[in-house]
Amino acid sequence: MSLPRPLHAVIAAAVVAAVALGPTQLASAAPAQDLPSADQLKSALLTAADLGPDFTEVPATESPSPGENPSPVSGCDALSALINMHATQPGLANSRAETELDGPDGNPMVTEALAAEASDQLTSDFNSAADALRSCHTITFNAGTEDTVTFTVTPVTLGDRQDAPAVRLDGTLAGVQLNAFVGIERFGTVAMAFGYFQRDGADAQTASMQYRTAVSKVERTLGTTAGSTTPPTAVATTTATATATQNMRV
Question: What is the pTM of this model?
Answer without folding.
Answer: 0.82
